[in-house]
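Quick log. Single chain, no ligands specified.
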Amino acid sequence: MKINYSLFTKIIFLALLIVFAATKLVFSEIIKKIEVSGNDRLAKETVILFSELGVNDNINSNDLNNIFKKLFDTDYFKDINISFNNGYLKINVIENPLIQSVKINGIKNKSILKVISKITKKIEKYPYLENKVSDQKNTLINIVRNIGFYFAEIETQVQDNNNNSVNIIYNFDLGERAKISEIKFIGNKIFKNNKLRNIIVSEENRPWKFITSNKYLNENRIKLDINLLKNYFKNKGYYNALIKSSSAKVVDSNNFVLTFNIDSGKKYYFNNINLEVSDNYKKENFSNFFEIFNELKGKAYSLKSIKKIINEIDKAALQKEFVFINANYEEKIVNDNKINVNIFFNESEKYYVDRINIFGNFITEEKVIRNTFIVDEGDPFNNILFNKSINEVKSKGIFKSVNSEVINSKSINNTKIINITVEEKATGEIMAGAGTGTAGSTITVGIKEKNYLGKGITLDTNLTLSEDEIKGKFSVINPNFRNTDRSINTTIESTSADFMTSSGFKTTRTGLKLGTGFEQYEDLFFNFNLSAYYEKLETSSLASSIKKKQEGDYFENLISYSITLNKLDQNFQPSDGYVTKFSQTFPIYSEDLTIENSLTASKYYSVNDSLILSGKLYLKAVNSIDDNARVSKRVYIPAYRLRGFASGSIGPKDGTQYIGGNYGSAVTFNTTLPKLFNANENMDFNLFIDAANLWHVDYDSSLDSNKIRSATGISVNWYTVVGPLSFSYAIPISDAESDETESFRFRIGTSF
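-> predicted structure:
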């Protein structure tokens, strides 16, 4: 006989279901009444609410166990007793004491106290549990240690108020702040300490560093240092570079030596870079990338180059309206030190943005964050644009942390809800610096606020004092004016230069400038400014005849613009790429119709990790349409572009005074000298050749001095115990009789 197994299975399943239902009915009863006893602060209704049961509910032994667990999970009860008999559910509880208040002793610093209080308030008016207080104590210890009080200790006291409530008292013994006395880099690190020290954020403690907090030992900052070092090595080709360890060794009561153990590994180079394009997309849409791949082949591996390519491919895909694809890549080591990169597209499911929620912005206006987002509510959800939006929020530098969550919307199918949680941080900065050298001494102080009134606006003010000049500037910058990706800036500045003793004149220049800036194309930046200035020129008997002639008050309205093409690998200490900038200034209304033109360019080439070649060009022209160019506007060669000659002491002279020219040019060639004093980790040596010319005098051609000045020499950047020291020794190759030479030049300076 043939058995129908499908029918047999269904009969067995139905029988089991009937048995289970019958068992459930036998061992469950209906709640007729609920009694709560032992509760003091909590109402009966609240306890019942916590139990998640009510009158007329069915209850069995499993439900009784669940009630017990649910009530305990609230943390409100020290002991719970539950009984059920003949439909009566009895719940007897003993409540935990309530934390009435939390007191903090031993902290006087208001900013630290504010951070600590924000944490401790979270347990006030909540049940007292020893383990919760212990966890909070550990959190507080980590907080104060992360801001430098590495040896801090906390004693916890529990004060009984005799009304089933307690006060928690935290007695802090902060001790001295742990400072970094020295930073070391050991292992196979390739680069000198001087170079690596400029990569990280942590700083060595010095007596004059009384403002910066980077001198204090901070675990979070050390983690950031490790990431910065890893990225630096990867961008230099060291694909498998490891920061094997970082350690802080106590050298005395409150000083540490911070050591980074680095294994750079071998250097890797790009081999084949391939872009997989499926039949759904035309290969021609990405044809220009294949040329870039060929250019990179054989060059040192760079994580930055890969990320830039991925970003550009994503942008190209979006421009072709391939909204629901994302570019990704895989890397494979071949032939021992070469890397193949395979780039491919992942198709994502088609979702749209239902809602964007922003949390935690207690200071910053919500529109500041929303205006940064590239995706908006109703747009297709794309991981590329979403991640770029998050990075844009982070790059503002006004939040301590930015966390994001993407969840499916329950109200609308195929949509996503984006939750952004930010943590505010202090956005004000105080800066101070000082320097001295053969060219004189300077002192600089400044205050900067990056999130004024929570509007994302930057306020920046600084003052610079030198032996002959006082410069002050106050600026207001809106980095994304009305969500246009254009910055708007307003600047008020004043400069007073007093050369009465040396050259018989003094100038005071005060004005207002309004401007905008934006990135027109990739790496191509445009800036436009309108300005109004008032200038006063005073002279004495020592002044030249032209300066006496120009004495008086001047008012002018100017329009200026600049175009910058920046292809550097990094703006700070670049080793590859180039940057070019052209700028012009025209008068709208002025006492003298002077037009300024300038062009600067720099090119860097890395032969290897230690040998870097560079060339720099400087061109400037100042011409007046109707008269002679004013003395304060004439061209002078900046001292750093022509070493071997005294600052401002070359070119045309009128009597005993150097008067500058209408045209100026300078070129510099520089190379590092990696093998010179290679054992000294804190010194960098460079060989240079400088050449410059300053010529044409519009008011008297007989004063012209059209001759190329040049010098060659060696420069040293030395990180010393008293701050960064730079000095150069130059030998003039060609000069004019009227020039003043200066073979040795030094400068020492630091920030506080």
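Residues 5-26 form the longest helix (22 residues).
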